[in-house]
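#lab-general

N.A. 3:47 PM
ok so I finally got the sequence cleaned up, no stray characters, all 417 residues accounted for. can someone with queue access submit it? mine expired

B.Y. 3:52 PM
send it over

N.A. 3:53 PM
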Amino acid sequence: MSAQNTTTGDDLADLVAVARRVAQERYAPMAEEADRARQTLPPEERRYLASLGWLGIALPERFGGAGGTFRQALAVIEELAKVYVPAAFQVFEANVGPAQHVNRLGTEEQRKRYLPAVIAGELTMAIGISEPDAGSAATDLTTRAEIVGDEVVLNGRKRWISGGGEADAYLIYARMSDEPGSRGIGAVIVEADRPGMSYGARERLMGFRGIASADVVMENVRVPVDNILVRPPDGFRKLFTNFSIERLGNTTMSLALGQAALDAAVAYVQQREQFGRPIAEFQAVQLTLADMLLQVESARLLRDRAVAELDAGHVNTLHVSLAKLAANEMAKRVTDLAMLLHGGNGYTEEYGLERLHRDAHGWAIAGGTPTMQRIRIASELLGRSFDQRRPSASQKAPVKQGASTNQEAPTNQEGTA
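B.Y. 4:20 PM
back already:
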């Protein structure tokens, strides 16, 4: 069942029901072994997701998408992520990841070149922001993209790239001018098979075991100037405003993990007996379940508010950061509590809770850490930016009370894992 351009309750419920059935019947049987073997999603499974219409839910109909809403796309992502993150990640990347950057920021020619292939499951895209010395401080990136005639020449190294070494194309954030900080940064689409592209060894991460992660190295890689997605000086601001859409995907991944852990705990405490009765009858268990539900539902409401604003045409970065922070922190706590309620069983791979917990920590790092989200929230709340860099003695100058020391916009933007 593909998504339709509607958000009526019945249609959304039907879509969720189909996604839940696919997750349980097709992906649940393979999830544990795939995680253990660090197996990424096979290409035929990506094409299967495309056949359902799920790689184009929130992408335009003229390119083969459904022209649907972000609410619909995130609903599918959540159901898949409860069971099998690699499948959810493909829907994520297509609808709220780099392909959505191309859709919202790219030229019509770029959309025609990339989006139909993404929607058909024939092409995957990854995003390259972080570098060995530029993570949260994204404006410190040093990868260069120099325009030479009708080409762009790229040199640099990207790190913590989800899809690194496996994606067919990369959206590379790069320094395109000598302007300091964010004012010199733009973004270029780089196909994986370009001469000069190479990849580091696959990272052995604590979680995300079904998602490839590796360095992406560019040595005099040449692409046409038509591959430039955005240029400085205002490109970085556009990119990171749009990146809030990806953060809602990240938020949903965390929400799915927390909901899955809560669902597992609710079922377990009603059938597990100790001292001659189900452990659900013990007050300590009841209080723990209440706290878990409170945290999950609070995160969900924050996420839903931000998604409703997005579908109405407005990206509210404050509400996105609140939702992401709440969901990231919730997923770590709730998966941990679910493990505790399962006792010794929670510490085994058999029940799958440790997998949820490992992945929860990953989503709290990816897309901007909880610490950086808190800084962003405070910045939005106070209506001012904060420069995280400590100036040297020669750079220090008196600042009027209440004035920001920030000299670029914005320095409190962060990178992504």
